[in-house]
Task: inverse folding
């Protein structure tokens, strides 16, 4: 009888151990499933505001981060903004400010580049910054009419950072002749613009970069036409200015 009792105790002990191990396995598996996926950076994490005071003339504009490498943050904006100064106060989306320096401007499009040293940015801000998201295949599909383009958005910046204003509109032509842009094709939009929006990134509804604001033109029309440098032209202009491969067109 004692022999059978020992066998029964061993069986119970093994069963309890297996149940415990099985429960641990399910618990661990559940924990793995609960780990959240890495969130896609917000478009505002790539946006900046430019400000300069030159001989009493105050100039402001907008821009976006194209690349972060070689210890520098490379920012795209308009040439007509950079025409006023070489040194800038650059404000990031959280309000952090740093000194920026004009690198150069395109000889073809209204595009310029400013750089900021990563050493001048605190580590907490650097962790949040990210280059704009670019999906060239999606841009090509939309510009060719293969994919419908939904709404577009501009996130308005100020010297305090992201202002909280998101302006929405539509693209009325991806590649339209623009007489004030050296006669080259530009992106035409139906969106409300204000002073300081020059150089703003134009995003699609998925947060991908579509173009960069140039401005609005009044040409004996009842309403102004709004224009932007299209994505492929931004890519070629950036390489012309910096010598760097931002996004490959091929």
Result:
């Amino acid at each position: 009888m004692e022999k059978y009792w020992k066998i029964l105790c061993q069986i119970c002990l093994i069963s309890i151990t297996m149940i415990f191990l099985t429960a641990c396995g399910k618990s661990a598996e559940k924990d793995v499933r609960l780990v959240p996926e890495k969130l896609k950076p917000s478009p505002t994490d790539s946006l900046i505001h430019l400000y300069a005071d030159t001989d009493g003339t105050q100039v402001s504009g907008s821009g976006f981060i194209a690349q972060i490498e070689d210890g520098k943050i490379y920012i795209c904006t308009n040439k007509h903004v950079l025409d006023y100064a070489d040194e800038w106060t650059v404000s990031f989306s959280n309000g952090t400010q740093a000194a920026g320096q004009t690198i150069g401007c395109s000889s073809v499009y209204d595009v310029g580049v400013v750089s900021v040293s990563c050493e001048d940015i605190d580590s907490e801000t650097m962790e949040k910054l990210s280059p704009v998201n670019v999906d060239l295949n999606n841009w090509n599909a939309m510009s060719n009419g293969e994919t419908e383009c939904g709404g577009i958005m501009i996130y308005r910046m100020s010297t305090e950072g992201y202002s909280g204003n998101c302006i929405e509109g539509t693209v009325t032509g991806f590649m339209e002749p623009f007489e004030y842009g050296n006669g080259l094709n530009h992106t035409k939009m139906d969106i409300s613009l204000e002073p300081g929006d020059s150089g703003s990134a134009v995003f699609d509804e998925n947060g991908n970069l579509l173009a960069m604001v140039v401005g609005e033109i009044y040409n004996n029309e009842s309403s102004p036409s709004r224009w932007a440098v299209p994505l492929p032209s931004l890519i070629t202009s950036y390489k012309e200015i910096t010598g760097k491969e931002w996004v490959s067109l091929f």
Summary: Residues 14 and 20 are 10 Å apart (CA to CA). Helices lie at 2-34, 79-82, 123-128, 136-143, 231-242.
